[in-house]
Amino acid sequence: MPLSGRRSRLALAIVAGSALLFAALWGRHAIVHAQSAAQNQLTVYSPQTSYSVPLLDANGQPYAGLVELLEPLGSVDARADGKKYKLHFTPPGGRPLELQFTEGKNKGKVRGNGYKLPANFVVQNGRGYVPLSVTSALIAKLLATDTELHAAPRRLFIGNVQVRYTLELHKDNPSRLLLGFSSPVNPSIATEPGRVRLTFRREPIVSSVGENVPYSDPLITGVSFSEHDGLAELDVTGTAPMMANFADGGRTIIVTGAPAPAPVAQAAPAPLPPAPANTQNPTPQPRQPATPRFLVLIDPAHGGSDIGAAITPSLPEKDVVLALARRVQHELANRGIAASLLRNSDVAITLDQRATSANAARPALYIALHAANTGQGVHVFTALLPAANLSPQGFLPWDTAQAAYLELSGSVAGSVAAELESRKLPNTRLLAPLRPMNNIAAPAIAVEIAPPAGTVDEIANAAYQDQVAQSIAAGIAAVRAKLPEVRP
Predict the structure, then answer these.
(1) Is 286 among the domain residues?
(2) At the N or C end, where does the chain have fewer CB atoms within 10 A?
(3) Contact 450, 186 (CB under 8 A)
(4) Cβ(202)–Cβ(13) under 8 Å?
(5) Are 341 and 328 contacting, i.e. CB atoms less than 8 angstroms apart?
(6) In a domain? residue 42
(7) 301 — phi, psi (to 5°)?
(8) Which domain range does residue 82 map to?
(9) DSSP secondary structure of 170-212
């Protein structure tokens, strides 16, 4: 249920070609290390769910945590005793299966039989890790099912879950490209002149027709497939602006030429303000010291050409979350809490731009809002980051700045979840390696709404969104005293 999800940084200085961002945060100069590396994670697709597993670099290769890998697939009980590590995994409707490994050794036991890893077992902070390359075979042995690991793009398929696609080009006027999928899909869609990019973070899309398919159509020039960083992408290129629409319940995506933009009327220049009555020898006014203030920054995801998920063929995620953001802002104002929107119109903002703008605003709390047409109820996320001894007063790595605020972020998430529960709204608390939340140097949560029940259209129901907004605002108000005010 990852969100998916990952850019002008407010750089005050760049030191000798390094990637350090100097930003004024919380009234002090905290240094944020900007790293361009992609999220280090494995995306797992199973018949039950799709999820992400953070990876650890050890012994010169990526490792996956056993608990994070197996917990979404069943019940897990794991414990480390010195260098020995034991884990009991119980698949749904099955019996407990035991795994035993020893730190620094490559031999262990799985289901009572000897099992050899391609590299030594690793224990870190009480958690056990196995090489990424063995994850497919290990799960196949535990679940007695077919698995397939795409190691380079870090995608793992469990069972027959792959979603395949077909391409059909219609040469009517205008040209149309039909992408047909074996199961309904819900990608994020981004457009730019001459290109439509479909990004699949949750669906196990695999190539069916080759990585590159050229066309000699007047509009559509080609389609390319790629997979990387735990996701898949389809890029449609053309000779003019294009757009994408959903059909057949998400089983078909139609790419056509985009309509020409309407002409924009030129606004009349604003009149000059009147001159002050006395412009000679004005008396300088003493500057008042800035007083601490409590600000909640609300970040509606997506915007502009990035529509996010298609909740319905006519309802993009970007519109749902913007409406919800305005409701949350209103509910916070009713409780005497100042709130501003990072995006208050249909504009595109990159992940780095969101993080930079949020850090520059120095909020007491940051909230990212998302929406989905799968699942039910409300999902409240905090950052999934490794344990780190970071202080808000010190140097904060760009990719893990949120690690310094995880305790406060967890308090807010728990309070919001409690308010959702009191209103009998289905809700789940989750951890996820989300951007830009990982880059935020302030307490931060992400809230994703799905339909409460019944049809997908209910996600835009005013009464439902009001209940969610009230829960978020009430949850924040309940823990306001725990969150530090900051100086502008």
Answers:
(1) no
(2) C
(3) no
(4) no
(5) no
(6) no
(7) -65, 160
(8) 47-158
(9) E-SSS-EEEEEESS----EEEEETTEEEEEESSS-B--SS-SE
**Are both 320 and 424 inside the same structural domain?**
yes
419: left (phi over 0), alpha (psi -120 to 50) or beta: alpha
What torsion do the CA atoms of 80, 85, 88, 91 make, to the nearest 10 degrees?
110
Contacts of residue 342, Cβ cutoff 8 Å, sequence gap at least 6: 297, 298, 299, 300, 349, 354, 357, 358, 361
Residue 412: the pLDDT is: 95
Q: Do 367 and 477 fall into the same domain?
A: yes
Q: Is 27 helix (H, G, I), strand (E, B) or coil?
A: coil
Whether residue 24 is contained in a domain is answered as yes
Q: Please tell me what DSSP assigns to residue 384.
A: -
Q: Compute CA 373 distance to the chain's CA centroid, rounded to the nearest angstrom.
A: 15
Task: Let me know: does 368 contact 379? Beta carbons within 8 Å.
Answer: no
Residue 145 shares a structural domain with residue 229: no
Interval 210-244: pLDDT, tens? 889 999 999 999 999 999 988 999 999 999 988 88
> Does some domain include residue 362?
yes
Structure-block tokens of residue 106: 């490559």
Token code pair at residue 248: 């057949």
Mean pLDDT in order along the chain per 10 residues (488 residues): 35 30 31 38 89 89 94 90 92 92 95 94 92 96 95 95 92 82 86 87 87 92 93 94 84 85 51 54 55 87 90 90 94 90 89 89 94 89 78 72 90 93 90 87 95 85 93 94 79
Same domain, 56 and 176: no
| pLDDT value for 191 | 78
Cα separation, 237 vs 234, whole angstroms: 10
Tokens standing for residue 264: 């924009």
Asked if residues 444 and 409 have their Cβ atoms less than 8 Å apart, the reply is yes
Residue 444, classified by CB atoms within 10 Å of its CB into exposed (0-12), middle (13-18) or buried (19+), is buried
Beta strands per DSSP E along 26-102: 28-33, 41-45, 50-58, 61-65, 75-81, 84-90, 97-102
Bridge-partner residues for 446, per DSSP?
A: 368, 381
Angle, helix 462-478 to helix 317-334, in steps of 10 degrees: 50
Q: Look up the pTM and report it.
A: 0.53
pLDDT for res 186: 79
Look-up: residue for tokens 């951890």? 431
One domain, residues 296 and 355? yes
Residue among 3, 67, 11 at smallest CA distance from 39: 3
Q: How far apart are the first and last CA of the chain?
A: 36
Q: Are residues 320 and 454 in the same domain?
A: yes
